[in-house]
């Protein structure tokens, strides 16, 4: 059995509120009687992409558990690569920060969908070629593709401007490949859908939640509700069985 703790969007910025919200998640994980096998954080690690914020990320997520991280649209490649050098293994000194890690019998393909200076996501032809090449390599175990921007519409008038653009190329690469699930963040909501024949599983936002247009008004202002409980996804893979995902919102 492989248990993945899937976190997303902590947006650490040196202030108490996001730090305390992340600590609710890490304290919950530390209370497990059986540790998870890997922690995956699907982007927006820092809120402004500052070196000090990545030092905070490293300190707050320092646990005796394999830790995988990829950038989101709030992240900046150079300070991320410097501040998280112990966790990020990707050649070069800028974007994209693509990675492949084999942990606990599973393969994690971490795809950098960020566009420097922009909030939407996009995969270049070079990135798609890289992903295609990785997924063509055989692997005896589950294969997870992690990407910050999910390939979907949230049907939210603001968020849909910032989703993954030009998804056709990604669909072509993923169709027919052996992929256990696509793990995403960015929308600050637990999401379950499909894309190119594969499950798409989005983690809740740690820093905040994005209410949908038809939901009741919240106490937050603007797009996000910063008062909603932070959450995480737990993906449980057992050989011969379908992947199971449960969502938790620790108090």
Automatic annotation (TrEMBL):
Keywords for the protein's UniProt record, in alphabetical order: Hydrolase, Iron, Metal-binding
Occurrences of domain Calcineurin-like phosphoesterase (ranges): 3-190
Family note: Belongs to the cyclic nucleotide phosphodiesterase class-III family.
A GO term for molecular function: metal ion binding
TM helices/strands, residue ranges: none
Protein name: Metallophosphoesterase
Leader sequence segment: none
InterPro entries: Calcineurin-like_PHP, CNP_phosphodiesterase-III, Metallo-depent_PP-like
Entry superkingdom: Bacteria
Native source organism of the sequence: Kribbella pittospori
């Amino acid at each position: 059995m492989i248990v993945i703790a899937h976190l997303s969007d902590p947006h650490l910025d040196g202030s108490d509120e996001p730090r305390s919200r992340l600590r609710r998640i890490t304290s919950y994980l530390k209370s497990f009687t059986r540790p998870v096998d890997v922690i995956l954080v699907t982007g927006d690690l820092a809120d402004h992409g500052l070196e000090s914020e990545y030092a905070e990320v490293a300190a707050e997520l320092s646990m005796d558990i394999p830790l995988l991280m990829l950038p989101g649209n709030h992240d900046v490649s150079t300070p991320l690569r410097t501040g998280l050098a112990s966790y990020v293994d990707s050649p070069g000194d800028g974007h994209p920060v693509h990675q492949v890690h084999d942990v606990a019998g599973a393969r994690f393909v971490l795809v950098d969908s960020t566009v420097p200076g922009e909030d939407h996501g996009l995969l270049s032809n070079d990135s798609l070629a890289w992903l295609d090449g990785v997924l063509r390599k055989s692997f005896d175990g589950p294969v997870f593709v992690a990407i910050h921007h999910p390939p979907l519409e949230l049907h939210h008038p603001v968020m849909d401007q910032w989703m993954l653009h030009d998804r056709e190329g990604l669909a072509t690469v993923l169709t027919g490949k052996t992929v256990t699930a696509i793990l995403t963040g960015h929308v600050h909501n637990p999401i379950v859908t499909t894309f190119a024949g594969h499950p798409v599983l989005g983690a809740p936002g740690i820093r905040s939640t994005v209410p949908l247009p038809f939901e009741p008004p919240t106490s937050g202002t603007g797009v996000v509700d910063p008062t909603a409980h932070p959450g995480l996804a737990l993906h449980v893979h057992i050989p011969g069985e379908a992947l199971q995902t449960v969502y938790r919102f620790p108090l």
